[in-house]
Design goal:
It is an enzyme of class 3 (hydrolase). The protein is an alpha/beta fold. It has a single domain (about 15-180), classed as Uracil-DNA glycosylase-like domain (Uracil-DNA Glycosylase, subunit E, 3-Layer(aba) Sandwich). Helix content is about 35%, strand content about 15%. The protein contains six helices and five strands, in the order αβααβαβαββα. The protein has a five-stranded mixed sheet with strand order 2-1-3-5-4, with helices on both faces. The longest helix has 18 residues, at about 95-115.
Length: about 190
């Protein structure tokens, strides 16, 4: 991937990144919102320091580490990607609580329509705000959207120092086992 200039990144602010979706997915991964690199390239989790793609592979969801530009290949594995908030920003903390709540409402409607088996929200703080679940923790949630179960994952951003690639991969693998086995706890 060509290196983008600061001007090119700033020009991507507020751009939308198309979802990677299909009906009846096993897991629909959901980021908080696209970063500027994602908006500039049109690919989810595109910033080189983001750990989503390495963790997805290490946890066993994909047989090899995919590049962000290969995101459409996720559909062959029964996986997809969307975001809580569609607007791109340099940092997720630029989003207002109102944007996250509206994003949660729109996300719930999308999930009701597409009916994935699991919705996996990457970012506990955003999940708490978007779904009014102040006590939510990483892991499977009691809440469902129709028949879709929800699992909150750690945010794979390189800024999330609380989770290493190894511990994140363990949590993603718990979700993978639950999705494979059809159980709630994995």
């Amino acid at each position: 991937m060509a290196r983008l200039t600061p001007e090119e990144l700033l020009a991507a602010r507020d751009r939308l990144v198309p979802d990677v979706l299909a009906d009846g997915l096993s897991v629909l991964f959901c980021g908080i919102n696209p970063g500027l690199m994602s908006a500039a390239t049109g690919h989810h989790f595109a910033r080189p320091g983001n750990r989503f793609w390495p963790v997805l592979h290490r946890s066993g969801f994909t047989p090899r580490r995919l590049k962000p530009s290969e995101q459409q290949e996720l559909l062959a594995y029964g996986l997809g990607i969307t975001n809580v908030a569609a607007r791109a920003s340099a940092r997720a903390d630029e989003l207002s609580d109102a944007e996250l709540r509206e994003g949660g409402r729109l996300l719930a409607a999308k999930v009701e329509r597409l009916r994935p088996r699991w919705l996996a929200v990457a970012g506990v703080t955003a999940y708490r705000t978007a779904f009014h679940e102040r006590a939510a923790v990483v892991g499977p949630q009691q809440r469902t959207i129709g028949d879709t179960r929800i699992w909150v994952l750690p945010n794979p951003s390189g800024l999330n120092a609380h989770w290493s690639v190894a511990t994140m991969a363990e949590e993603f693998a718990r979700l993978r086992a639950a999705a494979r086995d059809g159980e709630g706890e994995g």
